Amino acid sequence: MPVNEVLATEFIKLVTISSRSSSVGYATRTTGWERRMLSERVKDGFVKAVEKADVPDGATTAILVEAEHSSQNDSRRHFTAHWRDANKQHITTKHIAPPEQEGICLWMLYCRVER
């Protein structure tokens, strides 16, 4: 799924990172596609990943654009997130590492069991 301009989002949760509040959500519509739903496992995994991420200066919102995946340019498993400021202006797009959770499937086609 290519990254496009995010046109609509759905709120997931408000989190506190380094004494700053950040809103976490996911894209429901971009200039290239629409997402009708997102599983609770993916939402939970993204929230946990954001809580451990380096928040860009001025960012107040993290928006999940692509669920956990790897790519040709980044072979690590990651979420793709857009970060926005308080005025809802795009600051940057970053890959965020997913949380390591034993026996949890964070993405429908990818399961990892840590031993």
From TrEMBL:
UniProt organism field: Alternaria alternata
This protein's name: Uncharacterized protein
